[in-house]
Hints:
disordered N terminus
Amino acid sequence: MTGGSGCAATQYTRLSRWVGEAATAPPALPETHLATRASGSAAPARRAGAPGFAYELEYLLRQAGRPDLAETAATLPIFGRCPCSDLACASFYTTSWLEALLDWARAGETIRLRPTRGEVSVDVANRRILSVEVLGKRDVWLSLAHLPLATQAEKRDTSGR
């Protein structure tokens, strides 16, 4: 979805394959969040995906002048990893891949952040983070490697399994 050097651009070629499947059932609630906060939140505790990166993302969003998005960084749901084959890619989606693509195409923007290492950008539509593109951060990749690919998660959710 980003217009930069990232891997999300390869996803456009797969859109037609997912349109029919995604319309049949809503996506399931993800079981993983980027991190969990210790505050008295009413939401059930979730397994943390990459808590160190969550704090970095929150800081980077504040530095970019987006405190509204920074407040949600620690509790971002992780729907699935980017399905590209780039070993430097640790990007993930916070909603189904198809929903993210369609929302971003309608009213999205890409916010490029300035980390000290690697590349990070956030795709946003309607003040909601749809995906986080992370390149060159092996620690984040290792934290999220156990999660399904975003396209696999959609197949699982639409088949009712």
